[in-house]
Structures are given as C-alpha cells and as structure tokens.
Write a structure and sequence with these properties.
- The protein is of the alpha/beta class.
- The strands form three sheets. The chain has a four-stranded parallel beta sheet with strand order 1-12-10-11, with helices on both faces. Strands 3-2-4-5 form a four-stranded parallel beta sheet, with helices on both faces.
- Strand 10, helix 9 and strand 11 form a beta-alpha-beta unit.
- It starts with a strand and ends with a helix.
- The structure holds iron/sulfur cluster.
Length: 283
C-alpha cells in the first residue's frame, strides 16, 4: 500500500501543568533518592506511573500513609488540611499543583471570605474539586443545571469552575442562575489547554479516515477526546500503548490522525507514531 499521511495534532499530549509536575518529581527524585512519594498517582497515565515507580518514586494514598520524607502534591492540588497534616508529620512538601488550579483555589477562598455562596462547577469527588472545596469549606459542587434545582440559592452567589469543565456546561449553569440571585460573581477558571486540544482534535478527526487517541483509560480528558473524534471519524481508536495498535485499522487508510490526552508525554506519542509507520510498511 502507499504510505498514508500521518498527522499529529498541533496541540496534543501533556499540558503545561503535567509537564511541570513530571519535571519537579524527576528533579526531586534525583536529589532525594528513594525518599520521594506522590500523594496518589502523579497523573492518569499508568505507564508513566509505573516508570516512576521503577525510578524509585512510589505512590502514597495519603500523607498519613507516606513513608518517604518528601511528599509531592499532584497538579490537581489538595486541600490546606493535607498540607497542614504533612507539616505536623515533619514531611517536606513539594507542591506541583498547577498554577491554574491554584487560581481556582484562591478565587473560591476569596469569594467565601467576601460572603458569597460559593458554587464550584465541576465533578463531585474529583481530586481538583476536593482541593477547591478545602479552600472554601461551605462551597457546593454543581455538575449540571439539573443539580442546581435542588440548591437553595442565597442573595450573593460566586462561581468558580473546575479547570477541565466545558464552557457549554458553565454557560448552561450560569443561564439558570441569572435572574434567581441578586448578585452573581463568576471566575471563569476553565483551562484553555483542554478546550484547545478538543478543538484541534475535532478539526483533525474531521479530515482523516483513521484517528488514534492516546492516553490512560481512566483519564477523563482522554476519554472525552476519543468521544469528540468518534463523532466525526468512525475509525477512531483509544489506546494506551503502541502494542494495542491493530494493522487492520490502517488497511485502507490514506490519512491518519493522532492526538493524545493531557497526561500523555511526547515520547509516548512518538512511540505510537513509529509503531503506526512500521505497521503500514508491512501492509
Ligand atoms: S489541564 Fe490546565 S489546569 Fe490542568 S494541569 Fe494542565 S495546564 Fe494545569
């Protein structure tokens, strides 16, 4: 077969916050050999987490369970009580919270201090949202306009948003709030990295006949990318590693697109690209 064109999305893979967290952990682990642990898996990418474990960076489920001296806060951030507890236990904290997530924390705290009823538009139980709630303990988490119906709204309402939420969901919730409260203050804390990757993936998948989406199956943003690509390219496949690729997917391909979730480092994208080239050469 003629070698198909293979196009990697212009914006794909690890975002600024994930790259930064990985860099910080690698630097810390080289300075403090075998004495660094992350509070939960550093990112939603099993292959990266396994590699870190091989390099001596283990995962602790909580500060109380951590045996290492240096404990890393993930890019999702944590509630202030977690930092407080680490200090009580004499741990050194390495804070890899993404600066954009920090902005959400600060906004929620500010709104609560100024007497607003704080609403966090996001997914209840998500680590980032839990960290935000820790900064504004009376905050309520709202996932959809339907959930808002059960809330007894106060006069002054302040809204912050989980960084990975869709602008459409935020707009739908804000539309429901307008007219029901006297004062509404909104911090649009959605991170552009997610929406930009989604827009670029949607464009690419509409132009190709085969689309490969790389990233952890437990990664919400990768799963969302796969859904977006499937909507315009029926031959879309979500994989974690190159060995999941099947030659039959490329049998009639002329133009192949590749994108990757925000937890996928560049070397994993390159490995998949190389594997696709090898498979197509054999067809
Ligand atoms: S998606 Fe945005 S907010 Fe989340 S870690 Fe990446 S850069 Fe930070």
């Amino acid at each position: 077969m003629t070698m198909p064109t293979i196009e990697i999305a212009a914006q794909a893979g690890a975002c600024y916050g994930v790259e930064r967290a990985l860099r910080m952990v690698k630097e810390a682990s080289s300075l403090h050999e075998n004495t660094v642990q992350t509070l939960g898996p550093l990112i939603h990418n099993p292959q990266v987490v396994q590699q870190l474990e091989k390099d001596g960076v283990q995962v602790a489920s909580s500060v109380d369970d951590a045996t290492a001296n240096v404990v890393v806060i993930r890019s999702h951030g944590v509630a202030p009580e977690v930092v407080q507890r680490a200090h009580e236990l004499g741990k050194t904290m390495l804070d890899a919270t993404c600066p954009y997530v920090k902005k959400v924390h600060h906004a929620a705290k500010l709104l609560e201090e100024q007497g607003y009823q704080v609403l966090v538009v996001g997914e209840a139980g998500h680590p980032e949202v839990e960290g935000t709630r820790g900064n504004a303990p009376s905050a309520l988490v709202i996932g959809s306009p339907e959930e808002l119906k059960a809330v007894r709204l106060k006069r002054k309402v302040g809204v912050v948003v989980q960084t990975t939420q869709s602008p459409a969901n935020l707009q739908a919730i804000l539309s429901c709030l307008l007219g029901k409260v006297e004062e509404l203050r909104v911090f649009d804390t959605i991170c552009a990295a997610t929406s930009e990757r989604q827009a670029v993936a949607a464009d690419l998948s509409s132009r190709v006949d085969t689309m490969i989406v790389i990233g952890g199956r437990i990664s919400a943003n990768t799963t969302r990318l796969a859904e977006i690509c499937s909507a315009t390219c029926a031959n879309t496949h979500h994989i974690e590693t190159p060995d999941e690729l099947e030659a039959s997917w490329f049998a009639t391909s002329k133009h192949i697109g590749i994108t990757a979730g925000a937890s996928t480092p560049a070397n994993q994208i390159q490995a998949v690209h190389t594997a696709i080239v090898n498979l197509c050469e054999q067809l």
